[in-house]
Design a protein that fits this description.
InterPro entries: DUF6196. The chain is an alpha+beta fold and 136 residues long. It has four helices and six strands. It has a domain of 92 residues: Alpha-Beta Plaits (2-Layer Sandwich).
Length: 136
């Protein structure tokens, strides 16, 4: 069983070897019924998710509530637990929560995460991300 200390070392190292990309726009959710999917689906949506007969898509908004950024792990094999670890880290350091969605890109040989953070906390999040990335 992995210790908390080892997990911190493993995930910090994985993070320091990842690519982080902050998107320049703000985002927010649009919600609609299944019957409206063909009409309202935005091909530029960052994420699309269904809950029963309702859909939500995360789209660019001039005064959106979130700023989004991606983390690509570049083929690092073991990033198990990263989402919870990173969310807990930001909760402790900044007192904020995250929105998270995860995907896979076989052309980049690995998983990637997108995170949304409240727009009013983006400066502090960028500071923490830069600090984590510098730890090896």
């Amino acid at each position: 069983m992995e210790t908390v200390e080892y997990q911190n070392i493993r995930l910090t190292k994985a993070f320091s070897h990842s690519d982080v990309n902050f998107l320049p726009d703000s985002y927010d959710y649009e919600e609609f019924d299944s019957e409206e999917l063909n009409l309202k689906l935005n091909p530029e949506a960052l994420a699309l998710i269904r809950d029963g007969d309702r859909w939500s898509q995360l789209v660019k908004k001039e005064s959106g509530a979130f700023v989004a950024f991606s983390i690509h792990f570049n083929g690092i094999d073991n990033v198990n637990g990263f989402v919870g670890w990173f969310a807990s880290y930001l909760k402790v350091k900044l007192g904020i929560g995250l929105i998270v969605f995860v995907g896979s890109n076989s052309l980049k040989n690995g998983v990637y995460d997108y995170y949304g953070v409240p727009i009013e906390h983006i400066v502090a999040v960028k500071r923490e991300v830069a600090m984590l990335a510098s730890i090896v």
